[in-house]
Write a structure and sequence with these properties.
Blueprint lengths: L1 H6 L6 H12 L4 H15 L7 H36 L4
Length: about 90
């Protein structure tokens, strides 16, 4: 982002500046630089969207939720199994 800001005035467009930054960094495509810049703008609050921190937290919570659902399913199955065992007549 800083590199783009520094060389933006030396190019005719933002895309040309992104292309130059991509070449300087050895990145295959300027689209990658554009995505980095947009992500930095969202993280800085200059652009609307979900920040990197919020995205990481959302991923963590989704993982945790899936794990809890699996555990709940296991507990329900075990509960049903033991309830069936209690309902069987004893010999």
């Amino acid at each position: 982002m800083r590199m783009l800001v520094e060389i933006r005035d030396q190019h005719e467009s933002e895309w040309a500046a992104m292309r130059a930054v991509a070449d300087l960094l050895g990145v295959a495509t300027p689209e990658t630089v554009r995505q980095w810049v947009r992500r930095a703008q969202v993280d800085d609050g200059a652009r609307p969207g979900i920040t990197s921190d919020e995205s990481a937290e959302l991923k963590r919570l989704r993982r945790e939720n899936a794990e809890l659902k699996r555990a709940n399913g296991i507990l329900k199955a075990a509960s049903a199994f033991f309830a069936a065992e209690l309902d069987r007549p004893q010999r």
